[in-house]
Specification:
The chain is mostly helical. It is built from six helices and no strands. Helix 5 runs antiparallel to helix 6.
Length: 161
């Protein structure tokens, strides 16, 4: 969906489908919760969870890779179809998503980073985990994001006349 004014993205996205991509939001928070369940107790001294903490960290990172690739390829397709998509609007949902969605997906990323900061000394693989909730934001943006149309260049190539 395209909008002529990027400030209308919140309204346009909400009108389009108020629960669009709810599964992506749930998946982002679930990944953060899963990481917290194993990383926090391990960081507090439950050595029996070392293998689980490493496995969950690497597993969530491996899941994030196809999410990022799919989000990027879908955004490239939307750009080719005429949408003006920038990194900030795709992965940080700046002007492309309703406030509620943006708050949840970026909130999940921030909470994940906080957990990683608190547990990184015991599980250095945890630094890879925030890639999944942030990739989820990109996925939401590439599927449901509302972007303005690309400006027309009048058929000219290059930056100079």
């Amino acid at each position: 969906m395209r909008v002529s004014d990027p400030t209308d993205a919140d309204v346009a996205a909400t009108e389009r489908a108020p629960d669009a991509g709810a599964w992506i939001v749930r998946a982002a928070w679930s990944s953060v919760a899963l990481y917290a369940v194993v990383a926090v107790p391990f960081a507090l001294g439950v050595d029996a969870l070392e293998g689980a903490a490493v496995a969950v960290s690497l597993g969530l990172f491996l899941v994030s890779l196809p999410v990022w690739i799919y989000a990027f390829l879908r955004a490239v397709g939307r750009t080719a179809a005429g949408d003006e998509i920038q990194v900030a609007s795709l992965f940080f949902l700046a002007g492309s998503a309703p406030r509620r969605v943006r708050a949840h997906l970026l909130g999940a990323t921030v909470v994940c980073i906080a957990i990683v900061a608190a547990t990184a000394a015991s599980n250095p693989f945890g630094v890879l985990v925030p890639m999944l909730p942030l990739g989820g934001a990109g996925l939401w943006g590439s599927i449901h994001g509302v972007f303005p149309p690309r400006p027309s260049r009048g058929g000219q190539r290059g930056g100079r006349r």
